[in-house]
Write a structure and sequence with these properties.
2 domains, Creatine Amidinohydrolase, 21% strand, elongated, three-stranded antiparallel sheet, single chain, 19 strands, Creatine Amidinohydrolase, Chain A, domain 1, alpha+beta, six-stranded mixed sheet
Length: 362
């Protein structure tokens, strides 16, 4: 992972002696630790990674994670006790005057322990730099996300084959997770959204016991986790029949999705893609019912930094990977969202999720 270390220091310039990524306990794990190390297994609670301007990397890990750490190209230092961990940190950071920290993921407790152990340094928060570096994926990251998208897309296309009237939201969610793991995913990339009827108007609803009834929306937002990397796809269906209003909403959301896909390319402000989809929806009777951003970054986290929204300042760059997910939500009635994952290219974008977007009545 030397190239990733070098990219961070290239963006930082001079003045930073070293950078540390410190994990606390679940769920306070810094995913940038896994970006830097490339580790595919292990949790690495209480462990640290220190990187240097010359591309070197040290891992200070517990005995529990020693086997997992041996798969990483780094100098490995193992501790048994918290006292030993403190001594290793003190030894590794000896002479460091300016230390970069990932303030967005470092807990206050870990920062306090670090200052107690190595008191003579000045910390500099480099989290914005880390976020921007992680937004542009390297070849290995692209391939892992592409595979995660393939798995999720295959399962999305399978949904019409097993979704039946009367099934509970949680039941369908379990089936989706099972099918993704059968195809090679290590698990779902986030808590799945399986929403029927009026529940589909809540963008971050979690699956419950509600059964699917005739004439209702069935919305599924899920992703596969493959070798630590995420996909994120949403497809919406209708049970047994769709009303004229439901069909109108679906077709409008699909048009907004396709318009955004044709707008996206390297070099444009991300907010332009959001504006294209939003203006289309707002030109109809559903003005104001697209209530979130067009998309977000995707990678080790399902929200990996960066977004396409009315307020974002980022410019799209080649090999950024983001979601494209317009939606319309009407409380008490239901919602429709269609979400794809895309890789930004010079000419446009590569759509990584290829599940059908045809209106389907099941």
């Amino acid at each position: 992972m030397k190239s990733r270390v070098e990219r961070i220091f290239q963006q930082l310039g001079e003045g930073i002696d070293a950078v540390i990524f410190m994990n606390a306990t679940e769920p306070n794990i810094d995913l940038s630790f896994f970006y830097i190390t490339g580790a595919e297994s292990g949790i690495f609670e209480g462990c640290s990674s220190i990187i240097w301007p010359d591309g070197r990397m040290e891992l200070i890990v517990s005995e529990l994670e020693e086997t997992s750490s041996r798969r990483v190209s780094a100098e490995i230092k193992t501790f048994k006790t918290t006292e030993q961990r403190a001594e290793l940190l003190k030894e590794s950071l000896n002479g460091v005057k300016t230390l970069g920290i990932n303030g967005a993921a470092l807990t206050y407790g870990n920062l306090k322990k670090l200052k107690e152990t190595v008191p003579d340094f000045t910390e500099v928060d480099i989290s914005k730099t880390v976020e921007m570096v992680r937004m542009i994926k390297d070849e290995e990251e692209v391939e892992r996300i592409r595979k995660a998208c393939q798995i999720a897309s295959r399962v999305a296309d399978d949904i019409p084959n097993f979704l039946k009237e009367g099934m509970r939201e949680s039941e369908v969610g379990a089936e989706i997770s099972y099918r993704m793991q059968r195809l090679g995913a290590s698990g779902p990339s986030f808590d799945m959204i399986a929403a029927f009827g009026e529940n589909s108007a809540e963008p971050h609803y979690l699956a419950g016991d509600r059964p699917l009834n005739r004439g209702e929306v069935a919305l599924f937002d899920f992703g596969a986790l493959y070798r630590k990397y995420c996909s994120d796809i949403t497809r919406t269906f209708f049970a047994r029949e769709a009303s004229e209003k439901q069909e109108r909403i679906y077709e409008l959301v699909r048009d907004a999705n396709e318009l955004a896909l044709t707008t996206i390319r390297a070099g444009i402000p991300a907010k332009e893609a959001d504006a294209a989809a939003r203006e289309l929806i707002d030109s109809t009777e559903f003005k104001g019912r697209f209530i979130h951003s067009l998309g977000h970054g995707l990678g080790l986290s399902v929200h990996d930094g960066g977004s396409m929204s009315p307020v974002t300042d980022i410019v799209l760059q080649e090999n950024m990977i983001l979601t494209v997910e317009p939606g319309i939500y009407i409380p008490g009635f239901g919602g429709v969202r269609i979400e794809d994952d895309v890789r930004i290219t010079k000419e446009g974008c590569e759509v990584l999720t290829n599940a059908s977007k045809e209106l389907m009545v099941i």
